[in-house]
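Human: I would love a firmer grasp of how sequence relates to backbone shape in proteins. Could you go through the record with me and say what the backbone is doing? Here is the record:
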Amino acid sequence: MPTNNWSRILPGIALCTAISLAAMGLQAIEEHWTGRPWLEALVIAILLGTILRTAWTPGPRWTPGINFSAKTLLEVAVVLLGASISFQAVMQAGLGLIIGIAAVVAVAILASYGLCRLLGLPKRMAVLVACGNSICGNSAIAAVAPVIGAKPEDVASSIAFTAVLGVIVVLTLPILVPLLGLSLTQYGVLAGLTVYAVPQVLAATVPIGLVSTQLGTLVKLVRVLMLGPVVIVLSILGGRETSTSKTGLSLKKLVPWFIIGFLGLAALRSFGVIPEAILSAILPTATMLTIISMAALGLGVDLKVLGRVGGRVTLAVTLSLLVLVSISLGLIWLLGLS
């Protein structure tokens, strides 16, 4: 990148980085006092960015770097996240459960999207809520957002409401064990299919039992792997929508470069090509870039927009989660898990 371009984007990147560091510091304080991060730095960065944007509107000096952080850095982070995926996890789960997990994700996305649209949410926000609820919460929303061209307000509101509900799920899901008479195996599968993040799966299953924790983590990892196919499908659908007047479609138009990079790194990780030393550096870098991009998205949020959609988003996320829990219990019954 030319020097003059760097000089244009550095102030905005520095601002987003400062917000991200503050968010990480607040998460560390939160963990120290509560023992776990109820609100992750990713969510805190959005909130801090939104608060700052409410008090102050960034001028032309900051805008190029904020836009670069919200788009390009997020795309780079998605590529690096591919290194966290190992296809071997799929083989360990068993074919029946893998097909079941894929079916749950697909049905949940369609049902959630339909609910969101019935409640009057815009198409892009409906996709974000559906993917966040059905796959892996914040990470899915962050990965899908650049593919569908989601607005910062849509991303921020989707992540904010999904994050709050994610905490509620962790606290309330164990109640279903005595309420429904679930076994350790059944509860592990249910937690893996419904809880948003891997750390949250641990928080929801460790108090119940080791079997639930092991199975829940495995199911959750397989569920996360569904993000790749979902994003590719969304890319293809988006490419078709924007190219209906053209005679041909290129791979670049159908599948963005960062999705190809994501799958490439996942393949390298699965074949053991990436050295452990490099792998240990890639994942924290991906996390940091994601947090920076979320701070940038927060700086682009108009609170008036969030106020207009807040109630509908809350209802949509809640109903979507209830649908996901119902579908997951149906899969457990269908597979005859005991």
About this structure: Residues 3-335 form one domain. The chain has 17 helices and no strands. Residues 303-335 form the longest helix (33 residues).
